[in-house]
Amino acid sequence: MIVCHCQRISDTDIHAAIDWMRASDPMAIITPGKIYHALGKRADCGGCMPLFLSTMRSNDNLEVPVELRGLRARAIGKEKGHERRRKGY
Q: What is d(CA 64, CA 28) in angstroms, rounded to the nearest whole number?
């Protein structure tokens, strides 16, 4: 199925790029931009983005590695929500 008509990207291309990236680096966080780059293309009009993301999410290899899950929540917890300013500011 064609996902992006502007760049001629199919669902097979997206799945192949995700599988290749996961095989080459198991710790990689895969984004749409990285997929476009792996395919040697770039987003043009963006009209395909909802279908592109849906196709990405349907791939089993897209998961964030276990070691990288929850890093943002831990970092935010350490900051305690302030920027070390006095309360008067």
A: 8
Q: 3-class DSSP state for residue 74? A: helix
- Tell me if 87 sits within 8 A of 46, measured CB to CB: no
Pairing, β 2-4 against β 9-10 = antiparallel
Q: Using one digit for the tens of pLDDT, what is the confidence trace for 3-41?
A: 998 899 999 999 999 999 999 998 888 999 999 999 999
For 37, 50, 58, 70, the CA distances from 11, given in Å and listed in that order, are 16, 13, 10, 29
User: Residue 53 is encoded by which pair of tokens?
Assistant: 């993301």
pTM given for the model: 0.74
**Spatial contact of 45 and 87, defined as CB atoms under 8 Å apart:** no
